[in-house]
Design goal:
Blueprint (H helix, E strand, L loop, with lengths): L20 H14 L3 H12 L5 H10 L7 H4 L16 E8 L6 E7 L5 E7 L4 H15 L7 E3 L23 H9 L13 E4 L2 E4 L4
Parallel strand pairs: 1-4
Antiparallel strand pairs: 1-2, 2-3, 5-6
Length: 212
């Protein structure tokens, strides 16, 4: 690429739209007649002229012509922005499946919520519940001495939740990963060794089998 100018950076996001001069004159005309705000003008223009102009665009035109004032209270953030609320690692982890768009392989990773470190991951031909549980077990085996995982954050995918019901409107025997994890993580009522016991299917999902 010597002696060649670099390519201009690509602009992301939705392209900015500009109002036509006819719409700007219409907004100023209706405002002079009605003397109302942007939201009311949006309804009037849509009802009388059949033109859909957003109230944000109308408000911008009014600001440019000193017919409206900015509300500073609405411009500031209502809630302070926090990147990651967790202060310690392994207090919560993310778990999700992703289908590769190149070869169609299913990928699952366990991501630490605080440090964003990939604790475990794997590639499979199909997204299964067993793989999800095995990945969490791997994290417990490798990092359990530091801290036991307190929470697992997942979506409502079929690999984690029982999303279907039978004819009697009862949840079928598909695995409910979150219920099984709540049983696995409760070290108060169950000893920690119970996490490594064989698993069995039940109405509440896959749970460790009790010793007889």
């Amino acid at each position: 690429m010597k002696n060649k100018e670099p390519l201009a950076p690509k602009k992301f996001g939705r392209p900015k739209t500009y109002l036509e001069e006819a719409n700007r004159l219409l907004i100023l005309k209706i405002h002079k007649e009605q003397n109302c705000g942007a939201r009311r003008l949006e309804c009037i223009i849509d009802h009388r002229f059949g033109r859909r102009i957003s109230h944000n665009a109308i408000h911008q035109v009014l600001l440019e012509n000193d017919l409206a004032n900015e509300n500073k209270k609405k411009k500031k953030r209502r809630k302070p922005w926090i990147r990651y609320e967790r202060k310690h690692s392994l207090t919560a982890v993310h778990l999700d499946w992703h289908t590769s768009r190149f070869n169609g392989i299913e990928v699952c990773v366990v991501l630490d919520y605080c440090s964003r470190f990939v604790l475990a991951g794997g590639e499979r031909s199909a997204a299964t519940v067993e793989t999800s549980i095995n990945l969490v077990k791997r994290v417990l085996d490798e990092y359990g001495e530091i801290r036991r995982i307190k929470e697992v954050i997942t979506d409502h995918g079929t690999q984690f939740f029982a999303n279907k019901k039978d004819k009697k409107k009862k949840m079928n025997l598909r695995v409910n990963f979150r219920h099984s994890w709540q049983r696995m993580k409760s070290s108060i009522s169950w000893p920690e060794s119970s996490i490594l016991r064989p698993m069995e299917k039940s109405k509440n999902g896959i749970i460790p089998t009790r010793k007889k």
